[in-house]
Amino acid sequence: MKMGVTVKSLVAALPGMGNVGGIAAAYLIEELRMEPIAEILDYMPPYVLHKNSLIEFERFSFKLYWGGRDFAVFTGFYQPQDPHILYELCNDLLDLAVNLGVRRIYTLGAAHTGISTPEPKVFYVVTDARLSDEIESYGAQQMRGEGYITGFNGLLLGLAAQRNIEGVCFLGEIERPDIAQPKASIEVLKRLSVALKIEPLDYTKLEEQAKKVDFYIDSLKRGKEFKQPKTRTDVPPGVM
């Protein structure tokens, strides 16, 4: 890890439903020109490659990015499904967060409502009810009722709360969990950028991707088949 780095907030997101969090994290890293300062090694891949009788092996990792501001971003290519590995990843990241002086963690994910709107809603959950008024001032709505936030984006905050670190999860509303949803990522980033007190981001690239996704989904509804559009942000982290 790069020495001398201290941050107040950590943004952490791995690919999940609609890849909302993965796309958002990758775009934030790209737009703010953040650089990797630390990594957590993964247990993938469970194999090696061979080429002309020579073994080739590169172990995957999750990376922490920093751009000189008072927050860092953590992301990776995929989300572990094994509970033991997921717990280990979250705890390793929290150890790192404590060393960096992190006081609040933001995770980013999706809320599958099955509704398509021009501007998807952004819901939130927090580890302390006292955070609600602040988070709602950013334009996020309370996630009412009861339910689960599965995987990394939820578990990390549960474990963070046990270490007395504040946690906020922004959840972008999506219609189709099986298709990348950059429109929801834009709405999540709008709330996050206010929370982090950074200048508005340029969403032009994501808006172009969102138009292609909307066209693709509309074609499916009309019974036509088109190749699913790519939603890369031309940077490796967090892109499914």
Overview of this protein structure:
This protein is α/β, with parallel strands linked by helices. It has one domain (9-43, 56-221): Rossmann fold, CATH 3.40.50. It is built from six helices and ten strands, in the order E-H-E-E-E-E-E-H-E-E-H-E-H-E-H-H. It has helices spanning 20-31, 83-100, 132-136, 152-162, 182-195, 204-221, and strands at 9-12, 35-41, 49-51, 54-56, 61-66, 71-75, 104-112, 122-126, 141-142, 166-174. The strands form two sheets. The protein has an eight-stranded mixed sheet, with helices on both faces. A two-stranded antiparallel sheet has the order 3-4. The chain is globular, with a radius of gyration of 18 Å.
Labels describing this entry:
240 residues; 8-stranded mixed sheet; two-stranded antiparallel ribbon
Layout: helices, strands, pairs:
Elements: E1 9-12, H1 20-31, E2 35-41, E3 49-51, E4 54-56, E5 61-66, E6 71-75, H2 83-100, E7 104-112, E8 122-126, H3 132-136, E9 141-142, H4 152-162, E10 166-174, H5 182-195, H6 204-221
Parallel strand pairs: 1-6, 1-7, 7-10, 8-9
Antiparallel strand pairs: 2-5, 3-4, 5-6, 8-10
Helix pairs in contact: 1-5, 2-4, 5-6
